[in-house]
What we know:
The protein is α/β, with parallel strands linked by helices.
Amino acid sequence: MFQNKTAIVTGAGQGIGFEICKQLAKQGANVLLNDVDAQLAEKASMHIESEGGICIAMVGDCSKKDFIQQMVDTAVKRFGRLDIVVANAGITLFGNFFSYSPESFYRVMEVNLGGSFFLTQAAANQMKQQASGGSILLMSSVTGHQAHKDLAAYGMSKAALEMLAKNLVIELSPFKININAIAPGATLTERTLNDAAYEKTWSTITPIGKPATVTDIANAALFLVSEHAKHITGQSLVVDGGWTSISPPP
């Protein structure tokens, strides 16, 4: 389905981002896999290539505009074009609202909002030049829909990403670029599995009876960046097993 397409996925050394890269490569895409952790990025890229995929690792902080442009330039230089961007990188800094520090606040905004905004900008400028369009996907969260204790800044950033997807329909549609967002709920990743109670807790409070796997989220992501979804734009898709319908706290 993605034969000869080129994709950039940020924050993809493990978890959801890695699974998206793996599935894109398996279906024929050329993938530029970014992570700030060099070891994770190289290991992830080698894994994908060992399975026959085409994947290059780019290590760096994707909240920085110069590095973002470098990723786009590298993808185009290496593969000739850019068709798909998944702005998956983000950070979660928990903290009590009454004492939340400016340092934590601005770092969350820099990565979650700034990184996604300027990656979208750089990618869209490249896609405009190609005249064949493209697909951009932003990674939101159920915390952008429902309140979650100690995540005021994070939830705020994720809600803002969904508004960005909606707003950019105006600018991007004339160039055949569609943009959407996914809002994952509780998901089993390397990070969440470090919490022994995570799976049991979320299985109890999720209507469908279990948290998502990374494959569940990747399946939704691949649909939204595929040719099957070219008429879908400005939308946010919640993938949470029904949790936001009832929203019991963990």
